[in-house]
Amino acid sequence: MTGMTSDELLLKHPNLKVDSIDPGWVPVLDGLATEVKAKLLAHGLPADSATYVQVKEKFGALTCFVRAPIDVAGIVERARLRSLLTCETCGRFGRRRPGPWVKTLCDTCDERRGQPYPLTLIPSFRVETEAVPNDDDFVSVTLRHAVDGGEEACYAMRAHRDDIGLAVGALLYDAMLRPLKGDGA
Ligand SMILES: [Zn+2]
Predict the structure, then answer these.
(1) Distance 167 CA to ligand 1 centre (A)
(2) H-helix segments, 60-163
(3) Does the CA dihedral 46-51-74-159 come out positive or negative?
(4) What is the pTM of this model?
(5) Mind listing the pLDDT tens digit for each residue in 137-175?
(6) How far is the CA of 109 from the centre of ligand 1 (A)?
(7) Minimal CA–CA distance to 104: which of 24, 2, 6?
């Protein structure tokens, strides 16, 4: 966590308009605005030529609408994926928590909220990565683990190639959140 406050964030990126974001996601937004700026400059465009139409939290994910003279959809998607792995409250590794108010939280902040969710132990698993067609930046990450009767459970998500470790953590968490297939049968 950088320790950057939302005031410092808006000072660094004056064109960033944020409706309401908890402190844990400030570094995610800083990364988004920094990457957008760098891409604009690389194309010879003014660093502030992107318009942040909307930046908000929705169902535990950072939701951004950015208007820019070049394509920044990959950067926005990466920030969304990162937000799904970042505690909104404190910025540590987090996961989306089920409940009446879906939030992305770390274990500690989730416990503090008082609605902990039971986890199932996954004794062993394997991970496969696969290229995404026509996209050099993103890969498809799949986590597989054995369940009763020789069957296999499979969890997959798209992630930036620099975020594969985070994606594996997230998928493992998904697997642990759901009861093993065949349990109680
Ligand atoms: Zn937290």
Answers:
(1) 18
(2) 73-83, 107-113
(3) positive
(4) 0.76
(5) 899 999 999 887 778 889 999 888 888 988 898 888 888
(6) 4
(7) 24
